[in-house]
TrEMBL record:
Coiled-coil ranges (or none): none
Entry protein name: histidine kinase
Domain PAS: start-end pairs: 22-77
UniProt xrefs under InterPro entries: HATPase_C_sf (IPR036890), HATPase_dom (IPR003594), His_kinase_dom (IPR005467), HisK_dim/P_dom (IPR003661), HisK_dim/P_sf (IPR036097), PAS (IPR000014), PAS-like_dom_sf (IPR035965), Sig_transdc_His_kin-like_C (IPR004358)
Leader peptide range in chain numbering: none
EC number(s) on file: 2.7.13.3
Keyword check for ATP-binding: yes
Domain Histidine kinase: 157-367
Reactions accelerated catalytically: ATP + protein L-histidine = ADP + protein N-phospho-L-histidine
Sorted UniProt keywords: ATP-binding, Kinase, Nucleotide-binding, Phosphoprotein, Transferase, Two-component regulatory system
Major enzyme class: transferase
Organism: Paenibacillus lacisoli
GO molecular function: ATP binding
Length: 367
């Protein structure tokens, strides 16, 4: 009886799971890859496209079968942005024999495109497209950490060498100030002292960007901190042609923070917002909206302006040390802010559209 069972079992299993022809099996695997796949034959005709690639092109698969490159480019539903990218990849592949392409799409995602051709493909061209946004984010974070570590090493070596001479110069200028006053040149002394203080402030920012001091925590309602910041900035905002509106919450939310450090972060973001609004033009009615909300174990502080906004390139480098779009900026303010929020166990994010404005979101742990 057992021998009969052993003989019949393979046939029963085969009946339940018929063997799939290898060709169909491999096609099914390609269909459901998370990478986009396109195959052109030696005549330039599209012979295969998987589901993911059709989604990336935002075109129906049925309308692409049997098309050549020209017909795909002339497809009425293909966006202008994608047409330009396809043309660029075609030129670099055919004329420059480039097999790997990296691009950023209109949604800010990073893609790696690999082209396979040659004798092993018998004249066919295989295009595979993979979303590498996560890898790019990891790479960018590692790069950011490397730069901050380098910044720390540089700051440690130069801080002593610069601050000591500045202190000595400041002291001698103060000793000479009465003599300059007698000569009617006190304005020179004032300018020198102001510039020395500015240099010291830059060095302080520089040192903080590499290693901000450990937070001295105090429990405080978020609303009281924001009201104080609004009072400090509203007169400057009016001078720059904008108004600050703060959303009042019925139920206060408390956080444990270093008040001085978080105030520095919020002031920096609001001043950047004022500069962005001022850059639009004198006829622009600027507004800065400040709001708070609870989100799980975090409290979120949003600072939104209707200024000139930022493009993707600026956004991707916004928290990099020394990166600035201002003529007189040091490029350290947002880098310091990023590190301060991180040291508080929170995080900071930003969304911006060129010509429409920018929104910063600061998330801090609730008490």
């Amino acid at each position: 009886m057992i021998s009969e069972f052993q003989e019949t079992l393979p046939h029963q299993v085969e009946a339940l799971h018929p063997t799939m022809p290898p060709k169909n099996k491999y096609a099914n695997v390609l269909e459901h890859l998370d990478s986009g796949i396109m195959l052109f034959d030696s005549e330039g005709t599209l012979t295969f496209i998987n589901v993911q690639m059709a989604k990336l092109l935002e075109l129906p698969r049925k309308s692409l079968a049997g098309c050549n490159l020209i017909q795909i480019l002339l497809h009425p539903e293909l966006g202008r942005f994608k047409k330009k990218k396809i043309m660029r990849i075609y030129r670099e592949t055919i004329f420059h024999r480039k097999r790997y392409h990296e691009l950023i799409d209109e949604y800010g995602r990073h893609w790696l495109i690999t082209v396979t051709y040659g004798d092993q493909m018998h004249g066919d061209f295989l295009f595979s497209v993979k979303d590498v946004s996560d890898y790019k984010q990891i790479e960018q974070t590692a790069y950011q950490n490397d730069k901050l570590a380098m910044l720390g090493r540089i700051s440690a070596s130069i801080a002593h060498e610069i601050r000591n001479p500045l202190t000595a110069i400041r002291g001698f200028i103060q000793l000479l100030r009465p003599h300059l006053l007698q000569l009617g040149k006190d304005e020179y002394a004032r300018i020198i002292l102001t510039e020395i203080d500015r240099a010291n402030d830059i060095i302080y920012e520089f040192l903080n960007s590499s290693k901000p001091s450990a937070p001295q925590m105090t429990v405080i309602p978020v609303s009281s901190l924001l009201k104080e910041v609004v009072l400090l900035t509203e007169s400057e905002a009016l001078m720059k042609g904008c108004q600050i509106h703060m959303e009042e919450r019925a139920v206060p939310i408390a956080v444990s923070i270093d008040v001085k450090q978080i105030k520095q972060v919020i002031l920096n973001i609001i001043k950047n917002a004022m500069d962005a609004i001022e850059g639009v033009g004198v006829d622009h009615s600027g507004e800065i909206q400040i709001g708070t909300q609870a989100a799980g174990r975090y409290v979120q502080i949003s600072i939104t302006d209707n200024g000139q906004g930022m493009d993707h390139n600026t956004l991707s480098r916004l928290f990099d040390p020394f990166f600035t779009t201002k003529e007189s900026g040091t490029g350290l303010g947002l880098s310091v802010s990023y590190r301060i929020i991180k040291n508080h166990g929170g995080f900071i994010s930003v969304n911006s559209v060129k010509g429409k404005g920018t929104s910063f979101m600061i998330s801090l742990p609730q008490v």
